[in-house]
Each structure stands twice: as C-alpha cells, then as structure tokens.
Amino acid sequence: MLDPILVKDQLDETKAQLGVRAAKLQDEFASLKRYGAERLSIIPELETARRLRKELSAKIAAAKSAGEDAAALLKQGQTYGNEIKKQEEKLKKVEQEYRDLLLQLPNIPHASVPPGAAETDNQEISRWGDPRQFSFTPKAHWDLGLALGVLDFERAAKMSGSRFAVLFGDGARLNRALINFMLALHTHEHGYTETATPFLVKGQALLGTGNLPKFEDDLFKVVGDRNLYLIPTAEVPLANLHRDEVLDGRRMPLSYVAYTPCFRSEAGSYGKDVRGLIRQHQFEKVELFKFTTPEQSYDEHETLTRHAEMVLEKLELPYRRVILCAGDMGFAAAKTYDLEVWLPGQQGYREISSCSNTEAFQARRANIKFRPEGSGKLRFVHTLNGSGLAVGRTFIAILENGQQKDGSVIIPKVLQPFMDGQEVMEPTG
After folding, report:
1. Are residues 147 and 97 in the same domain?
2. Domain boundary among 53, 74, 102
3. Which residues are catalytic, by number?
4. Over the stretch 176-201, which tens digit does the pLDDT of each residue have?
C-alpha cells in the first residue's frame, strides 16, 4: 500500500508519479479526492461538537457544585453527544472507504524503471550463453515429453481438467532433482534460510502481498467459511512470516527460500499457452524472499536477481535479463527484472523468473517494521522476491535445450548427482 499520508497530502503528485499505471485509475483518483474533501468537512464539525460538549461539561459541574438545576444543560449535552456520534460514524465510514481505495492503487515505479505502457516497451539488459545451433529441427517440450514417456496431459485432464499435467518416471525424477538442486544452491552457496510454509493462507495474508482485493479472480478459494486460499506463489507465506512484527535492523537483510506448489486460476489468460507446461493451474517454484532496510534494498535486489541467474548458468541454459517498463510490472512492484530462458522449440525467450523490489508497499499492508541499528524510530522494511526458479519452466528448458536427434535428452551435469548419476533420458520407443 502507498503511504496514506503521501496520498492524502499530495494526491496529484502521487498520480503523476504513478505515470502510465494511473491511466486506468481515473475513477479511483476521483473518489479519493471526493472522500478527502468529505473528511475535511466532517472533522471541523466533529471537533466543534467535542469542544462545545467539553465546555458544557464544565458548566454542568459548576451548576451542580452551586446546587443549581442542571437538567437543561444535561439535555443539551445529550444533543452534543448524539452529534459527536453521528460525525464519528460518518468519519469512520469515509476513512474505511478511503482505505479500501488506497488498496486499489499500485506501487510507484522506481526512477530507473522505463516509462513504457506494455511488454514491447521492456528493455533488455544483458544476455548469457548462445542459443544452441541444431542440425535438426528442435521439438517443443510437449512432443519431447510424450516421446520420452515422462509427460502426460490427457490423463491429468481426466482427473482435473485442462492446464494440469502428470509426470512419470525420469520426468518426475528430473522435477524432484531440480527442486533439490535449487534449494541446495540457495541455502549452501547463497545463504538463504530454507523455509517450509503452509500452502493455504488467510485472505489477510493475500491482502498483505497485494493479491487481494484486486486479483481475487486469479486465486483458488477453499469452499466454506474458513477464508482460506491456495497460495499463488510462496511469496505470499514468506512475505507474511513477520507480519505485525518489529525486526532488528542489525540482523537485516533476512533471506528466505521455500519450495511450494503454486495454484492460479489464470483467469485472464484464455487462449494463451494452451499447450504444454508454460501456463498451468498447478505448478512448482523455488521462491527467494528478502526483508531489508530501505538503504539495502536495491543492492539486495541486484543480489537476489544474480542468485536466480546463477541457477540458469549452472544448468547451462541461455537466458537474458530484461527490465520491465512501468506498464508491464506487477501490481506491488517498484522495479522488476525478468529472466527469460531460451526455448528452442518456440524459437524465443520466455520468462522463467521475475525478481521484484516492492519497497515498503507490502510491509505497510502487512505492518512489518524494523528498528534501525536496534534503536530509534520504527520504519517499514522493504521486501524483495523472485523465483529461483520456476520448476516447470526450467523442466521445459532442459528438455528443449538438451534434446538430441535420436529423441534423447542430456541431463545437465549439476543435476546428475541428484538423479543417481543418470546422464541421459531415453525415448520409450
């Protein structure tokens, strides 16, 4: 959530800072201005009624002390009390409506973010590795997976519908190897604390990360009155690890990593990536998350992104780093790098990790603060997140980049110890 004081006192400046992100929020900004004016009209009336009642209380006390009849004064006091109650209820309603509107506003882009409106305005920062030149026409992962006998969409559809998959044999082992490799790398070499979190969270946790209320259609909610949702990413439970806490600034940054399944309805993706594993209702990720001070956050953003890149480099998968323009960033992000892996079957780069700095946006919603150097005035932390990596998309990249003319797939060397030394996946015939 944006700073309420900033929005209240500098509404037009906030709108300007949001740039292209404000284009679809004209009604919200009009309502914010209206509610702000209503609030300013209520407060003087409320304060006047409170002052008059206070003055009247002194008169009542004096009358009683003098033995005088205070009935008329008491009746007048009741009138003031009713007026105060009325104005307090009006103020409470306006302030709640104002806060609900604030929750609809996205984060303000960092000064280094390109000002574009769509994906075409994103800017490539760097590339690593050269796409492999094949002596044959490379296949897409759905054809490779079928020939290898490791990937089955039809059986998954029978039990769960579209956008689900079943992995068999070497496919399931490769998937597990990727998870174990990523967790080992991030904990042993990068210093993250491994964390096992719930896969179901309360609505309040999703409010903290910015998934609610704006993106409820993208979530799977548990039927009944328990107010629980399946997590769309481990970012949600990780961001809420320190909800309503005050952290010690001397211990920051705090770095966590978690493997979880993820669940998304993909409500806005009708017709997109209907084949294969690119866009599933259920998928898996290894998620990186950091709590930092404001002074650390952008250096740590670079570090977190670099940790995600190292997974791709150790797997020898060509990729590029892209900085997202303001109009293509996620709702909570102040700055985002996307890592895009080369997929020979599609002859293009596809996102495999999104690494974002949300600054204090999530911390305000989840009430997470820190005490600088262990003392002094409390401040909101900054939160950072990124996939390290999306497991299914890494699985795709390995199949497509490692495929051979005979239909076999070479397993990256760093994964072989996690697969009992297996070097190749062979077609089933």
Report:
1. no
2. 102
3. 264, 279, 351, 354, 393
4. 999 999 999 999 999 999 999 999 99
